[in-house]
Design a protein that fits this description.
The chain has four helices and six strands. With 150 residues, the protein is of the alpha+beta class.
Length: 150
């Protein structure tokens, strides 16, 4: 992805948060798998209230608007005050724990409900183990992930 796209994403995220009455700055960090928009500034804590529901909504909007601008293998994440990064690590650790429990006991474990971004983190963590599998079930945007031993 080029810097022009990153600049457009930052400008868009800043415009949306400004329209929300927040004075935030946005910076982008990029890896081949992830383009992370980091927000900080006055009123930033407002985005992470209620388990980050507003931050999740903002991420969904940004990802939808720029879906065709990023390579298919790269995702967009919007973070604020390190909230998402901490939650991602917590979710990954929980997925690994549940996969271990599924392998040790032979009983499938459920995680959810999870949105698509969260499900991807769980599926990737479980796949790293090699001795467990995961699948999403449900009809809606938010689904449950079943983790079981191979």
């Amino acid at each position: 992805m080029n810097s022009e796209h990153s600049t457009r994403i930052v400008e868009f995220a800043t415009a949306v948060t400004t329209a929300m009455g927040l004075k935030l700055q946005a910076a982008v960090t990029e890896t081949p798998e992830l383009l992370r928009v980091n927000l900080s500034g006055e009123g930033a804590e407002w985005l992470v209230r209620r388990r980050g529901e507003t931050l999740n909504a903002l991420q969904h909007i940004v990802a939808t608007v720029f879906r065709d601008s990023v390579p298919e293998e790269q995702r967009i994440a919007v973070d604020c005050l390190g909230f998402r990064q901490d939650k991602d690590a917590e979710l990954r650790n929980m997925a690994l724990f549940m996969a271990g429990k599924a392998v040790d006991t032979g009983v499938a474990q459920e995680m959810g409900p999870l949105n698509p971004y969260e499900r991807r983190i769980v599926h990737m963590a479980v796949a790293e183990r090699g001795d467990a599998t995961s699948e999403s079930i449900g009809d809606a945007f938010v689904k449950t992930v079943i983790i079981s031993a191979k």
